[in-house]
Amino acid sequence: xxxxxxxxxxxxxxxxxxxxxxxxxxxxxxxxxxxxxxxxxxxxxxxxxxxxxxxxxxxxxxxxxxxxxxxxxxxxxxxxxxxxxxxxxxxxxxxxxxxxxxxxxxxxxxxxxxxxxxxxxxxxxxxxxxxxxxxxxxxxxxxxxxxxxxxxxxxxxxxxxxxxxxxxxxxxxxxxxxxxxxxxxxxxxxxxxxxxxxxxxxxxxxxxxxxxxxxxxxxxxxxxxxxxxxxxxxxxxxxxxxxxxxxxxxxxxxxxxxxxxxxxxxxxxxxxxxxxxxxxxxxxxxxxxxxxxxxxxxxxxxxxxxxxxxxxxxxxxxxxxxxxxxxxxxxxxxxxxxxxxxxxxxxxxxxxxxxxxxxxxxxxxxxxxxxxxxxxxxxxxxxxxxxxxxxxxxxxxxxxxxxxxxxxxxxxxxxxxxxxxxxxxxxxxxxxxxxxxxxxxxxxxxxxxxxxxxxxxxxxxxxxxxxxxxxxxxxxxxxxxxxxxxxxxxxxxxxxxxxxxxxxxxxxxxxxxxxxxxxxxxx
Length: 523
Description:
Blueprint: E1 7-11, E2 18-22, H1 43-48, H2 51-64, E3 69-76, E4 79-90, E5 95-96, E6 102-104, H3 110-122, H4 154-158, H5 179-187, H6 204-218, H7 222-231, E7 255-258, E8 261-264, H8 277-280, E9 283-285, H9 286-297, H10 313-320, E10 324-329, E11 342-346, E12 351-355, E13 360-368, E14 371-378, E15 383-389, H11 397-410, H12 422-434, H13 451-454, H14 457-471, E16 474-477, E17 481-484, E18 487-494, E19 498-505, E20 513-521
Antiparallel strand pairs: 1-2, 3-4, 3-15, 4-5, 6-9, 7-8, 10-11, 11-12, 12-13, 13-14, 14-15, 16-18, 17-18, 18-19, 19-20
């Protein structure tokens, strides 16, 4: 397997940056994957064995794209599997990047803001469909673009649906603005691109308003609320809002590549009496951010395990839901060149995407003068990657996609299987007792009231007998492959052919078979 990309278009989904660069992984970076370490000792070890390859990918990417310093981490099933780094946090002082180096993560901050809003919601202190003016009185005098426009709600702000115009890079320069300046901006009237609730349009202003709401509802600055209620419970000791609080030997300086040289960017302060940092002011290390990624991965699959995180797992899954559709790329190309349609949407402070193979990604990028970053997880696979760089708007989305796609293929990862519920397994065994003859099926009590009116018993019996006769001797009945608690398939293995049996159960208690299908599958 050789990964070759002639022209890689790296688009930061859910942000504002696109960047094109000729990037050929075959030359100068050629990786013969047949020479990589081989191990069958488990998922974690298989992924760890790919660490040298991943290091080469990130190192070459940083070199070709003039990135002064970069740190990355791979998270697997709640563990930081391995990390890596390249270059300098401070070019003049030649301070090397490490996984504990602290970068400004820009709009990756937005999911922390969204999580704080949901925590306050869970505590009964606000509702997502509350009009935002209840918490920001200046919004009550807002003039909407149409007379039939709905009031802006907290949910509109969370999903970039308030009708504000896309505001990159204008929003990046508001980081140090005070709440007084935010109030003045609102009072002078905001220019709308659409009425609320009509379109997705990325808005840093909307997330600044969410920061203001957190401060109002919690009774403490949003910075303090997020630190006390999210960072500290997760052990994120390096996380900061104000860069001056970061030790000098840990702080990544930001740079812009201009006129064939690095030019240091002025770091923006986080205004203690402001709200704009809620859209992108956070600083963090790869090591600490991995704890936050693990929290998100721990929400899947849903379970009855004890809650141990700072917010409920159901609220985290709510953040991951595709609330506002924002795109369909039927010609999306993965870094290896294959085409696979991709649908994208925005959740609460997070982007969602699903490809033609059904793989789901949860992600968010970040970009500010001097910095570019992204994190991306695959909940169904239990893996994720975060990469932080100190070059203005470094596009890390494409490289993170490449890394995850490569891990899935080279480590031969499979999505988590849905656990078979006891009732699904019970109905499967009961169904097998009446196949292929369907004798006394109508009196068995296994079937919902719609079943036989929808499926005449003579037709069921005829198809079943024909398929079992064609199969010959039955060798085994395979385990149930569950789609969810009440739906799935199993395979009856025959000498000549296999038979796939599908059924779904009704919502009544106990659930009964309401739909059924049997078909031949080739060996």
